[in-house]
Amino acid sequence: MSEQNNPRRAFIAAAGAGVAGLGFTAIAPGLHLMAVAQAADATTNSPAARKAGEAASSAVRWGLLVDATKCAPGCTKCVEACHTENGITEKMPDARQNSQWIRKIELVDRRNGRKTELPMMCQHCANPPCVDVCPTGASMKRADGIVLVDRHSCIGCRYCMMACPYKARSFVHAPLTEQNPEVPRGKGCVESCTLCAHRVDKGQNPACVEKCPEGAMIFGDLMDPNSAISKRIASVPTTQVRSDLRLDVGVRYQGI
Q1: Chain-centre distance of CA 210, in angstroms?
Q2: For the chain, which residues make up each domain, given as ranges?
Q3: Where does the chain have alpha helices with state H?
Q4: CA separation for the pair 80, 176 (Å, rounded)
Q5: Is residue 229 helix, strand or coil?
Q6: What is the Cα–Cα distance from 72 to 90, expressed in whole angstroms?
């Protein structure tokens, strides 16, 4: 193996330990991408609408900032909004087999017992391990940083689920009904948070951001220093979960 591939080997080893403990990429068949027409609107904290038929732009990198200090204990509005928006309605007898693109987790500081709740979803890594291990190219990263799965190419091998250190991907076990036509899903496929790419491509915020009653989430362009998300990151301490893996994630947290 050449030296340039050694970092990938080191990452896979580190990611495996993490799970136990707690540019432009090729476009997969069947996935239609939209283009960035202009920079994000920092005043309204809404992404700019795209022009249909154009490729996503590497001039933008979409990201999400979650203020855990505003995340109310027991609140699941972001989860409910995600499920409603993306047509996730199936209920399996074994709840562990239900699809879940976003979930609430609790962190406990062992030094003082302080508990913090926060939403955990696909972190939209700049260097996504799910893309590295996918044998068909179904796991992919758009030029604007959003990580997706093309259901037409996914063979359900679940390598990406094993590679993800955030346990952010689900396998679809059940037949699907009541789907959102803008969010095609498929039984036997792997899926995860898309940052509501279908909404972002129309100039809207992700559903979880829009429905959070506490305003705990900010969505925007991480590459635009004048965007609301960039200004917040520049002004307060924020955290990348498992920053030791050097994945350069697109989801940041404040207050953890």
Answers
A1: 16
A2: 3-254
A3: 6-21, 77-86, 129-133, 159-163, 197-200, 207-211, 228-235
A4: 18
A5: helix
A6: 26
* Segment 34-81, tens digit of pLDDT: 333 333 444 456 787 777 667 788 899 999 999 999 999 899 999 999
> 230, exposed or middle or buried, with CB in 10 Å at 0-12, 13-18, 19+?
buried
In this structure, which amino acid lies at residue 141? K
Q: Are 154 and 136 in contact (CB under 8 A)?
A: yes
Q: Are strands 139-141 and 147-149 parallel, antiparallel or unpaired?
A: antiparallel
Task: Work out the pLDDT band at 110, boundaries 50, 70, 90.
Answer: confident
Count of CB atoms within 10 A of residue 198's CB?
Answer: 19
CA–CA distance, 82 with 168 (Å, rounded to integer): 14
8 A C-beta contact, residue 7 and residue 15: no
Indicate the CATH number for domain 3-254.
3.30.70.20
Q: Say if CB 170 and CB 190 are below 8 A apart.
A: yes
Q: Report the residue count for the chain.
A: 256
Is the pLDDT assigned to residue 177 strictly greater than 60? Answer: yes
CA distance 197 to 1: 36
